[in-house]
Specification:
Blueprint lengths: L4 E6 L5 H4 L3 H12 L4 E6 L4 H7 L6 E2 L5 E2 L4 E4 L4 E3 L2 H11 L35 H15 L3 H4 L9 H12 L11 H19 L16 H16 L2 H21 L7
Parallel strand pairs: 1-2
Antiparallel strand pairs: 1-5, 3-4, 5-6
Helix pairs in contact: 2-4, 2-9, 5-9, 8-10, 9-10
Length: 268
């Protein structure tokens, strides 16, 4: 490649390289590193995402329940092929299709029998569109649903950039249909119930891991692991430390081992 790929990620509080924690951009960062592709990062403040996305002629890839557009990241620009892609799953498929011989195979054949059923999500999920990797596409939607259903455990400690924190918090409140930021703070018995639900959801996910992990396929990593890993990066960064250690230990420590095994692809 004559020039690196440009990767658009969401700016958090400085130093952003240590606090970035948005799950879908993390899926893309892990995939870029997994494929051993050179890239540079452009950090976009949360309030500027819509402007940046529209300036790149990238339509919103998701919609809120009321039909309005949800503009979010990641995006990559690859000048080597004059391509711009604006959805984490589509980006991974593009990287594998365009650079099959770089790094490892993101999409080895496997069955991914995990289904998580929940009501409408406050944060719109990627739709399960037609894909050359249908097993992974369905898996992506179900993993997103499982973690999104329990995001109250993490969202209250999101590391907003102080320069844009108030505007960003107001937007999160609007999206969730709440009245104030403090409504995201779940404590006491209510929090324990959410944690137990999260533990059960991860228990269902743990059943698809072969040979005790650390990866879904056992010793071989794939994009399925990066899908989960993007969410684990967020919960690691935003949950209280004691609670994160609980999550790491659940189900025989499987998700702690996965998080650690993906560190090699987590360079920022």
């Amino acid at each position: 490649m004559s020039t690196p790929i440009t990767f658009y990620d969401i700016a958090t509080k400085p130093p952003v390289e240590k606090t970035c924690c948005s799950p879908n951009p993390w899926k893309t960062r892990l995939a870029l590193n997994f494929k051993n592709l050179p890239y540079t990062t452009k950090w976009v403040p949360l309030p500027d995402i819509t402007k940046v996305r529209t300036s790149l002629n990238m339509p919103a890839c998701r919609k809120f329940a009321d039909g309005t557009d949800f503009y979010t990241l990641p995006i990559i620009e690859d000048t080597a092929t004059n391509s711009t892609i604006g959805d984490s799953f589509d980006i991974a498929a593009y990287l594998q299709r365009t650079y099959p011989d770089s790094g490892a195979d993101l999409f080895p054949a496997q069955k991914l029998d995990y289904v998580f059923n929940c009501g409408p999500a406050a944060i719109p999920l990627t739709e399960c569109r037609e894909s050359e990797y249908p097993e992974y596409a369905k898996f992506n939607v179900n993993v997103d649903a499982a973690f999104t259903a329990h995001v109250l455990l993490a969202i209250g400690r999101f590391p907003f950039d102080p320069a844009t924190a108030e505007v960003s918090k107001a937007e999160f409140v609007r999206r969730a249909g709440l009245s104030r930021w403090e409504d995201f703070n779940v404590t006491g018995e209510a929090r324990e119930k959410v944690k137990e639900s999260f533990r059960e959801a991860l228990g269902g996910l743990a059943k698809i891991f072969k040979d005790g992990g650390p990866f879904v396929l056992g010793n071989r990593a794939s994009y399925a692991d990066l899908i989960i890993g993007g969410w684990l990066r967020m919960f690691h960064s935003t949950m209280p430390e004691g609670e994160w250690e609980e999550v790491r230990a659940w189900h025989g420590g499987l998700f702690g081992r996965l998080y650690d095994a993906l560190e090699v692809y987590a360079k920022v």
